[in-house]
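Q: My labmate handed me this sequence with no annotations at all. I'd like to see what the chain might look like in three dimensions before we decide whether it's worth expressing. Could you predict it?
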Amino acid sequence: MLKRLIFAVIISLVSCSVDELPSCNGIGIEGEICKEYQYVNGDFNGSNQYFYDLDTQLKTKTITKGKNGNEEGSTLYAYDSLKRISQITLEDINGRELSVKTLKYSDSGFLILEKIEGQLNTTFERHFENNALVAETYMQDGGVLWVDSLEYFSGTESLYRKIRYSNNSITQIIYFEDYSNNVKEEKITDANGMIQSRKVLKFDENDNILEELIYSESDLLVKQSIYSYESGLLERVVKFNGAGVEFERFEYQRF
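A: Here is what I predict for the chain of 255 residues:
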C-alpha cells in the first residue's frame, strides 16, 4: 500500500522537525504510524517504513538505514485466529531469515511465552496465578539465566517488588512505587539493598508516558527521555544525557 521511501526525501530530513516531515505515501490507516525517523547526535541515522494489511494489522516493517536510502532488511508479522501477533521474523535485504520470534498466549489471553530462534536461542516465560503475573523466567540456549518473582501490595494489583534469582541466589531487587501525581518510581538494588539505579516515570491523565528519568547509584541524572504527543498519539521521543545534551531522537509520521 505504501510506496518506497524516496531517496531525495530522506536527504531532506536531516534537519526537519516533525511539523516539516512529508506526508505519508499511499493509502493507510488513519492514526497509524507510516514512518519512523531516527536521529543520532542530531544527524539523520535511518528510518522505518510501516506497511499494513486490510485488517488494520501491521504486516511488515521495512528498515531503511543511512542517508543513501539503502534498505537493511524487513520485519514480518504473522497473526493467530484472534488477530494476536504469533510470530515476528527478521530478514536481511536478500530475504534471508535472521531470527524468528514465536509468541504464545494462555486461554485467558495472557502472553506466556516469547521464544527467539536465531544466532542466540532465548526463551522468556511468564507465569500467572489468579490472573496476576507472579514469575518470569529467562533462558538462553536451554539454560536458565534468571528467574524473577513478583510480589504485590496486599489486597491490590499494584506491584510492590520484583526479586531476581540467578543460580538460586538473589542478584537484584526492583521496588515499585506509585504516587498520586501520575508518577511511578522503580528502584533497583543489589541483594544487600544497595541502590544501583533509579527510574522515575511521569504520565499524563490518559496514562501516556511523558518523561523517563534514569539516575545512577549516587542519584545523579544519567538519562532523560521526553515523549511528545499530538491528539493523543506519540509524535516524538527525545533522549538526553546527564548533561542535558540530546543524543537520540525518534520522530513519527502518521496517516
